[in-house]
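DATA CLASS: polypeptide
GOAL: derive structure tokens

***
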Amino acid sequence: MTTINKISKLALWAMVMSLAVNKVNAQTTTVDSTLLNRISALEQQVADQKSGENHFMVAGLTTFGYVRNKTTFIPPGGIAQSQKTNSFGDADHYELSPMLMWNHGNKFLIEFEPSFNGNTLGVNWANISYFAAPGLIIHAGYFVVPFGIYNKRLAAGWIDKLAVDPNGIGLPGSDFGIGFSGGFPLGDMKWSYDVSLTNGLQLLSDGELQNAGIVDNNKGKMVSGRFSLLPLSNSCLEIGVSGLYSNAGDAGSRFTSADVTMYSADINFVKTFQPFLVNIKGQYNRINVTRQTYIATTDSSAYSFNNKTSAAFGQISVRPIGVDNKLLKNFELAYRYSNYTTPQSSTWGQNLYEHDFGLDYWITWRTVLKFTYAHSHSLSTASVPAGGVAGITNVNSVYLQFSIQL
């Protein structure tokens, strides 16, 4: 009887162990299946974003507005003459520019930005970049020349605090060529560089300058670059210097020896002083063209002048981002002073200054409605015998502008 009981107990124990093992195996199989499914899903996500594939994105900007101008011209010893104009679309500042970007793997980025300004369809940017190494980007195509801070980083309507650009900052604009840019830490500080080799500038028959375009007007090229330092550890302050050299005369013309040198200094300061966000920016440009002899359009006589131009602006804006009122914190006050002095005794000589006052309402961080009042005063220093016009010109303008980053 004892032996039978032992055998029965052993059989019962074996059955229990068998059931337990089967249950554990079933649970293990279930857990493993769940993990495998999850791992498979993650692998698929990684495969969808793997390096080497193309990725496409559309960004860009659009700007639309209304402008009203009153221009008053006062000739020497004469009576003031005024003219008023107004227009929707604001032909001088309207823009629709979708930015098309293709990211080819981790190394290449292609950017193309067509632009419609109300009159013509053009291109702001057509560039391919190669991320060669940490701190080194090589790019080529049609791009904004690295000179100063405004043209490349502040001119977009949704970034600029005012509806109008500062006077005389347009050159050197955009050009065809190749460039190198990047930056590195310098202890607690940082520094960056942006240099380029492009076709260059062209000297016109009256001494003014413009971009040569895709077909260079001479054998020379333009070298330009901007170097900046962020001396504070929180990067709230940036100080930049720029330089440029270009041969500007048309090959085989009387301006063959004409060279252009430009230099610039700029500052950018952004910091919160509770409850206000303070934004200060400024830039000074100087343009020197070697002295040339020009032909007057009035009597074909020869004349000459020191072809030196200066332009500068200083700008400040204040926004109460730290207040509790949701409406008030979206407003921003802005002011800018600019000065533009062109060569005396040329046909386009003037001493111009402008005051711009702005009130902005930020609908989102990249969508803004701007009201700007601008007053400019220009005293002509042009040579009348050579075809210039003497007198004083005052312009008062009111802008209402909407800008958004796409």
About this structure: The radius of gyration is 32 Å. Residues 1-31 have pLDDT under 50 and may be disordered. Residues 75 and 157 are 35 Å apart (CA to CA).
